[in-house]
Write a structure and sequence with these properties.
The strands form four sheets. A six-stranded antiparallel sheet has the order 2-1-11-10-9-8, with helices on both faces. Strands 12, 13, 14, 15 and 16 form a five-stranded antiparallel sheet that branches. Strands 3-7-4 form a three-stranded antiparallel sheet. A hairpin with a 5-residue loop joins β5 and β6. The protein is an alpha+beta fold. Helices cover about 30% and strands about 20% of the residues.
């Protein structure tokens, strides 16, 4: 659902490609490559504690590899490649595609004001559908955290999300800034349902899934016997089954569950420019510019970039207990899908990056841009967690709700064993998210690394809404 590691995926990919091999032209996959992929996945799961992964690879516009690894749940003795994982925010490109199709049908225009469809939203009379899809609407994100907060224990409707978050003052004027907003996609999904006259997932089933031979279900229903179990981990403590959020919290921002092979079928449609008109694909993949002419590379539900001549279309996703990475190289006719049933660690992006390195040429690494004072403060918080002396006044009400006695004990016990990190660095530049500032850090120890994903209130003395510690590659 959330986008914790989507942008770093591109940096991860470029770093791995620096050690890559020349592009492959054959459509098949060799036994040596299969062996290498198996080792990549096995090593990642072993190092991070992530229970399972499902992988699909497209080469030459065809699915050439599909395999599931590890433990999908206690009730599933063998990992199944057809098991539907929750793909969360990877769903956003499907919501955007639905609105592009409705525009093709003459039922709306992406530059229509949203007040014409959904009344009562702050700034709706000067906010467009296109701005919802490009995260430039100014609507505050309702779920920037990488954990379930208290309200998520109770079911909610799209209108309930709108009433609580989309009627707040805007974080900025539409079109002037970029800020990832699940709220905007909830509104977008409501517009699809109003104009199409049917549930969003039914519209997608008729227009996209059935024609492509895909099977997709509401992730709220992909729970229980026969479905992968989501897992969590407090710092380096035990891997534990994670309780899913109550029904309704994903909707158009990330409601889909599907297998890696089904998602790969969609990637092939993107590569071959089928199911949608070519101009729709181009529109979705074209980065939207802000009012000052700048862009961060986000189009309509996907990131777009070019690295060493390779066009990349990418998006990741995070649900409660699940992470997903979907990266397409349309001009290379290649794609990599990695789905895991854990919401800790960067195994999903690391696996995708290493597999991509088998089929792409080298690229240049991207350097982070550290903020020294904030980095030092975050390091002090990590030290306090290790010592069991974290001051709750440094944290928000939501974090203190999440950081139970069990969580605090797991953090202290597992981090104390590591001692002082050799280095603690900012992984990428800070960004605004849901009214908070998101900063990701990497702590390096003698024999391992940790990812620290934080959200903090604005200002020098802002409290932490989130301070998640998890294993890294």
């Amino acid at each position: 659902m959330r986008l914790r590691l989507a942008l770093p995926m591109l940096a991860c990919l470029t770093a791995l490609m620096a050690f890559g091999v020349p592009p492959a032209v054959a459509q098949s996959i060799t036994p040596a490559e299969v062996s290498k992929i198996d080792q990549i996945v096995a090593d990642s799961l072993s190092r991070t504690g992530v229970p399972s992964a499902s992988v699909a690879i497209v080469r030459g516009g065809e699915i050439v590899f599909a395999k599931a690894y590890g433990k999908q749940s206690d009730a599933m003795a063998l990992a199944r490649i057809d098991a539907p994982y929750q793909i969360a925010s990877v769903s956003k490109q499907f919501t955007a595609a639905a609105l592009l199709l409705l525009e093709d049908q003459g039922k709306l225009n992406l530059d229509d004001k949203i007040s014409a469809y959904i009344p009562g939203i702050t700034g709706g009379e000067r906010m467009t559908i296109r701005q919802l899809l490009s995260h430039t609407s100014g609507l505050q994100d309702y779920w920037p955290q990488d954990y379930s907060f208290g309200a998520m224990a109770r079911p909610i409707t799209p209108q309930g999300i709108v009433d609580r978050w989309a009627k707040k003052p805007l974080d900025f004027e539409p079109g002037t800034q970029w800020q990832y907003s699940n709220t905007g996609y909830v509104v977008a999904g409501m517009i699809v349902e109003k104009v199409a006259g049917m549930p969003l997932i039914d519209f997608l089933d008729v227009q996209i899934f059935k024609p492509l031979g895909m099977t997709a279900i509401d992730q709220d229903l992909a729970i229980g016997k026969g479905y992968p179990q989501g897992y969590q981990r407090f710092a380096l403590g035990p891997v534990r089954p994670e309780k899913p959020a109550a029904h309704g919290w994903l909707f158009a921002a990330g409601e889909l569950a599907m297998s890696a092979t089904d998602l790969a079928k969609w990637d092939i449609a993107r590569i071959n420019r089928t199911i949608l008109p070519t101009d729709d694909w181009i529109t979705q993949e074209t980065p939207v510019k802000l009012s000052d002419g700048t862009s961060n590379g986000y189009g309509l539900g996907v990131f777009a970039a070019t690295q060493q001549g390779h066009k990349i279309i990418e998006h990741s996703g995070e649900a409660v207990g699940f992470l997903s990475e979907n990266i397409v190289f349309p001009e290379d006719k290649a794609a990599v899908v990695v789905l895991v049933n854990a919401d800790f660690s960067d195994a999903f992006t690391s696996i995708a990056g290493q597999i991509s390195a088998l089929i792409l040429s080298p690229a240049k690494a991207v350097a982070p841009d550290p903020e020294q004072a904030k980095t030092e403060h975050a390091k002090a918080v990590l030290d306090a967690m290790r010592a069991g002396t974290l001051d709750p006044k440094l944290m928000t009400e939501n974090w203190n709700y999440y950081f139970t006695g069990t969580a605090a004990a797991d953090y202290k016990q597992s981090l104390a064993a590591l001692g002082e990190p050799r280095s603690f660095t900012l992984a990428r530049p800070a960004r605004l998210r849901g009214g908070f500032v998101n900063r990701n850090y990497v702590a390096t120890y003698a024999d391992r690394k940790l990812n620290i994903v934080t959200y903090a209130e604005l200002g020098d003395g802002g409290r932490y809404e989130q301070f998640l510690v998890m294993p890294a590659e």
